[in-house]
Each structure stands twice: as C-alpha cells, then as structure tokens.
C-alpha cells in the first residue's frame, strides 16, 4: 500500500517497508498545453551530500552526463535522459541500493531542472502533475509517493525530495522547493 506524502512531511523507510534496500525513485510530469516555441526537456539530477550538507565531489552529482555514483558498488544509477516526458508513468528513474550507499553519503537530494529554461522562456508553472515516488525494486510495489501541488510559475529548478540517513536508517523528506536559476542555482547551494 502506497503512503502519500505532503510537502515537508518526513518518514522512515524502515517503518513503512521494513528491510527495504533496493529501490528506484521514479519522477514524472506533464507539460501544460503552452506554446513557448520549444520542446520542454526536464532533467533529473541527484546530489550526494556529505555530513556538511555539501556535494562530496563533482563526481557525486549524478545526471544525464554522469549516470553512476563514483563508489565501487555504483550504488546510485541514473536511468538516462528522457528528452520529452511524453507518456504515462515515470519519465526518469534513479536506482538506489540503500545498503550499498557509502557511509560518507548522508543525504541524497533528488532534483528536476528545465534544460535551457531561460532561453526557451519556460518554467515549472507550465508543468503539471509532477510527482516523485519510491518503489521497491524487488517487488515493483510503490512505497511512497509525493505529488507536487504548488504553482511554481517562476522557478526553473525543483528539489523534489531528499533521502537522508539518520539514527541508522534511511528516511525521506518530501521537499517540493522551487528555485530560479536552474541547475546552476542548485550547484551554488550544494557546492
């Protein structure tokens, strides 16, 4: 049974799905019928942060040009870039083996940005039905889901959710925070 989260809600993965280790984080969205003269290309990025709340290294930014985490186990893997977001279900997927994530990674931030948003005059106000969900990879059962309801009419970057390690277990925070400045704004926040 899926647990639906609201903005700002935090929950223990161990409490909702005991023994959960191999997951995928699915993200999806639809573009409103808006003509900006260009296609929308939304991109998922994952920031692997240390205890300082900062990116451990440039290699700890997982996105369409760096699909796997630098640890030997490759505990975090990006499923690849979906250039259109067309169709039902997940538009982009991040696979995470929670048991193999190195101990120096304390937070896994899942974000979505609009490629060339400023040049294309695009923002998240033109996007609807955005969601992030955590699925047990072994059973294909959706465990958690967060549907974004806010209007992000000026934002070009969204932090969707954070997985964080606290008191010996992984937890999820449904963040839903928007930023202007696209991926660069998030890099400045986490570098």
Descriptive overview:
With 191 residues, the protein is mostly beta strands. The protein has one domain (13-190): Sandwich (Lipoxygenase-1), CATH 2.60.60.30. It is built from three helices and twelve strands. A six-stranded mixed sheet has the order 1-10-9-3-7-6, with no helix packed on it. It has a six-stranded antiparallel sheet with strand order 2-12-11-8-4-5. A hairpin with a 4-residue loop joins β9 (127-136) and β10. It is globular, with a radius of gyration of 16 Å. It starts with a strand and ends with a helix. This is Chemical-damaging agent resistance protein C.
Mean pLDDT: 90
CATH H-level homologous superfamily name:
sav2460 like domains
Number of domains: 1
Q: What separation lies between the terminal Cα atoms?
A: 37 Å
What would you say the CATH architecture is?
Sandwich
Coarse morphology: globular
Low-confidence stretches: none
Task: Report the biggest beta sheet as strand number plus sense, adding barrel if it closes.
Answer: 6 strands, mixed
- Please indicate the percent range of residues in DSSP E strands (runs of 2 or more): 35-45%
Over all CA atoms, what is the radius of gyration? Answer: 16 Å
The total of helices stands at 3
CATH topology: Lipoxygenase-1
Number of strands: 12
Major sheet strand order: 1-10-9-3-7-6
In helices, the fraction of residues equals: under 10%
**CATH first level:** Mainly Beta
**SS content category:** mainly beta
Give the helices and strands as they follow along the chain: EEHEEEEEEHEEEEH
